[in-house]
Write a structure and sequence with these properties.
heterodimer; A: 162 residues; alpha+beta; 3-stranded antiparallel beta sheet; 3-stranded mixed beta sheet; 3 helices; 35% helix; disordered C terminus; B: alpha+beta; 6-stranded antiparallel beta sheet; 33% helix
Chain lengths: 162, 255
Amino acid sequence: MKYGLKCNGKPKFFIQFEGNEYQTLKAKLELMNLQIATTANAWSVGLEENYYRSPNQEFHTYVRNSINTRTFPTSTTCQSFIDDINSQLLSNGYFNLAIFRLIPDNEGFIYAPLNKFLTVLELNDIGKVVASLFAILFSIIAEADIQIRQSNASNSITTEAV
Amino acid sequence: MKHIRSIGIELECGCNESLITQIRASNFAQNFRYHSDGSVSVRSDNMSRFDRYPMGWHSGAELLYWNFDYKAVLDFVEFCFKNGIRQNESCGNHIHIKFSNKIVGALTHKKFFENFISWYKAFPLFQSEQYQSRLENSFCKGFYSLDNALESLRRTDKGSYRYHAINFNSLGIHGTIEIRLLPYAENFKQFKKAFKAVITQIDKQISETRHDSIIDFEFIPKKTRVKRDNEIVIAKLIEPTSSSNELEIPTMRIL
């Protein structure tokens, strides 16, 4: 997985999934009952995008609260967090966590348009948040996965959590 | 200049006190500052190394001026040369450039820095030792360091991390990018040619910005084997560990 900045014309933040990375994530998101929906105003710029919508508020709140407990002391870019696919990725110190909800294109890219070019420091700060975000997603998912496997394989000695 | 909002110049030089008085009484006064600089040492005309500095001579002067119009900056420099400033190998001419907030981030990436250095190395005007040696100068290092770029953008005080050919530290302090590469000039004509070449190139590079910056990181945890009858193990998995709290990007590769 890579993240970065496309500087070709209008700047865009991107995450690139490689190999079976997105398939792994997709399977896990669906395990958490997230459902595909469409918005016509993604990132507040009128983009039509398919994304994974939370069926209930609990998941949404858990993700946001979990990232709030992690501190990013040197970051001026990501001081607070929102999770709203219809808002900008970055605005006034807010970082939009909804980036993980997007579905990548055929080449494995998800994009979020930016209203300015990021400095390397801003890009680095966002990277730390995105890495933490996915760590949180996988920690939630590991719990659900293990519980399901435990109930389905009560006689086995070990359970694999992916 | 399409993307440049304003330009500032730092002329390191030796000059007479009378020049500073003249500037302070002129139209340049409002956007002018004077500092002394201990790393600069310039003797006045016809001085041997054993002579004492003449009365009123500033051997380590730093004359600072900015304007929205780069031609006004050139007028200022011309005025200084006409009124007796002298420069030597201990001097550099630093250019501060202010861009719109939307575009300035693009300059902090490795590709932009390296493209600029490649251009400087090959530009016909800069083929002499006077210009090429600046790339080896410890006050304006000609290579990009990501760690240094991050630190200089993070800090709002002046430190040694600013000693690179393009200094990002001034972004947090003055809102400018500082080009530290230009060496001393022997006269205004030489300065003008170099100055115009640099700001034209910077503006051109921004217009042609077509590079991507890519950073790798691993986010998918390794497969973890868990004993099924132990709830504590499950709890450990869902509880953020100290290491995940401080999750660092394992590898960085900015293209």
